Amino acid sequence: MPNRMYNRWIIAIAGIILQLALGAVYAWSVFRTPLVKGFGWSISQVTLTFTIAIFTLGVAAFVGGLWMRAKGPRIVGITAGVLYGLGVFLASFSNHGLIVLYLTYGLLGGAGLGLGYIVPIATLVKWFPDRRGFITGIAVAGFGAGALVTAPIATRLIASVGVLQTFAILGIAYFILVVGSATVMVNPPADYRPAGWQPTYAQQNAVRNYTLGEALRTWQWYALWALLFLNVTAGIAIISQAAPMAEEITGVSAVTAAGMVGIISIANGSGRFLWAWLSDFAGRRWVFLAMFLLQAVLFFAMPSVTHFGVFTLIAFVILLCYGGGFGTMPAFTADYFGSRDVGSIYGLILTAWGCGSVLGPLLIANIRESTGNYNGALRIIAIIMLLSAVIPLIVHPPSERREGRFAPPQARPSRG
Questions:
Q1: pLDDT value of residue 77
Q2: Is the pLDDT of residue 405 over 80?
Q3: Of the candidates 343, 347, 291, 282, which has an alpha carbon nearest to the alpha carbon of residue 318?
Q4: In terms of residue numbers, what domain contains 390?
Q5: Does residue 14 lie in a domain region?
Q6: Strand pairing category for 401-402 and 405-406
Q7: Following DSSP, what letter does each residue of 144-203 receive, concatenated?
Q8: Please, what's the b/e burial string for 96-112 (b: 16 or more CB within 10 A of its CB; e: otherwise)?
Q9: Per-residue pLDDT, 204
Q10: Of all helices (H) and strands (E), which one includes residue 406?
Q11: Burial environment of residue 304 by CB neighbours within 10 A (0 to 12, 13 to 18, 19 or more)
Q12: What is the pLDDT of residues 122-173, one digit of tens each?
């Protein structure tokens, strides 16, 4: 079917469904206690599975961005569904050893996550040149909201059929959802413009299209990488321990704590859209500055909060900021380096997600095991967030030249 016959909103809906299935990985904390109790593994050992999955995601997203340039989004998305579904399904054989859980859910599933994650982002930014911040927020909102659906379902499945059988059931469901959604993911024609939309002079000339190699020769690429890495480190530390942390600090039951996982997943999803939408008006830099300062205050306060409602509210706002980083960064990247190669340029920036997934969960899990509580880890993260606020204050767009000349003043980006 020719690309011109595709409705971009149908592709957007398919992208959201795809991301919802992939975002189920954020419900990992509901598996932690059953795995620890069922097999005698430590908290750190079980948490490492989540870390491997997200680290692999970051690497695979870069590979997916490069592969999409050559073969298009459909084949990459279908492959993602096969790997992700198979990885989660095979995790049902983890009773044969912890290494099986690492290789299946962590490595194989993580590869599917990364290949699939980049597909809607890189595809929809081309279909929606008129709504860049809005659509990149929408494109990743589904991923953040994935745990909202998965956490309560997985909790009830674990209670009725056990944790291993739950992996098998979910693996089949993920395969169907991701592969089905990927079949409609296509790039628009090279000359595509939305009906009735004409780019302004500033939009046509705001930034030249950098290649991946050119972007890597600017310090701004590394600054954007650091922004995402630091934001991920904070938020994913909470995600990886959300349910057991709520149980320990506030004294609620496992079922109630699992409900909180679903609630904060709403923040993860909605933050991706809300902060991205706000960045279209306030500027990307100032959005990141606000998120870092807000998180610094909340992480300092978190250890002293014992009321479940207040604790959930704090976690909710932190996850709004966590999601906001993912919603804002694709547009931030396109602002600085153009949209033509955003799949590979942003795909490589997503390795910051993988690196943050190593630092955040392991930091909080190891300090919890060594001290017997979460207080020290939460305050360390608060300090990290405070220091991180320096980066959005100093970052600015790369100097733009065309054929050896500076772009005219009116053509420079208007956003931070």
A1: 96
A2: no
A3: 291
A4: 3-188+211-396
A5: yes
A6: antiparallel
A7: HHHHHHHHHHHHHHHHHH-HHHHHHHHHHHHHHHHHHHHTT--PPPTT---TT----HHH
A8: eebebbbbbbbbbbbbb
A9: 55
A10: strand 405-406
A11: exposed
A12: 888 788 877 777 787 777 788 877 877 888 899 899 999 999 999 999 999 9
What is the tens place of the pLDDT at every residue in 382-404? 999 999 999 999 999 897 544 33
Dihedral pair phi/psi, residue 99, rounded to 5°: -60, -30
How far is the C-alpha of 187 from the C-alpha of 210, rounded, in Å?
A: 19
pLDDT in tens, 333-377: 988 988 778 888 988 998 898 788 788 888 888 888 888 788 888
In residues, how long is the chain? Answer: 416
Helices marked H in 283-394 — which ranges?
A: 284-301, 308-337, 342-349, 351-371, 375-388, 390-394
Distance CA 239, CA 243 (A): 8
User: Is there a contact between 188 and 126 (Cβ–Cβ < 8 Å)?
Assistant: yes
> Could you give the CA distance from residue 73 to residue 194 in angstroms, rounded to a whole number?
20
Hey, which of 108-117, 138-147, 264-273 has the most confident mean pLDDT?
108-117
Cα angle for residues 204, 206, 212 (degrees, 5° grid): 100
In degrees, rounded to 5, the angle at the alpha carbon of residue 53 between the alpha carbons of residues 47 and 57 is: 145
CATH label of the domain that carries residue 163: 1.20.1250.20
Q: Alpha-carbon distance 10 to 324, whole Å? A: 24
CB 361 within 8 A of CB 307: no
pTM: 0.76
Residue 201 lies in a domain: no
- The answer as to whether 22 is a domain residue is yes
Longest dimension (CA), the chain: 67
End-to-end Cα separation, the chain, in angstroms: 40
The number of folded domains in the chain is 1
Residue 389 lies in a domain: yes
Alpha-carbon gap, residue 394 to 385, rounded angstroms: 16
Confirm if 205 and 413 have CB atoms less than 8 A apart: no
Q: Coil, helix or strand for 47?
A: helix
Q: Which residues of 270-288 are buried (b: 16+ CB within 10 A; e: fewer)?
A: bbbbbbbbbbbeebbbbbb
Average confidence score pLDDT of the chain: 86
Backbone angles phi, psi at 406, to 5 degrees: -70, 145
Alpha-carbon span 383 to 292, nearest angstrom: 10
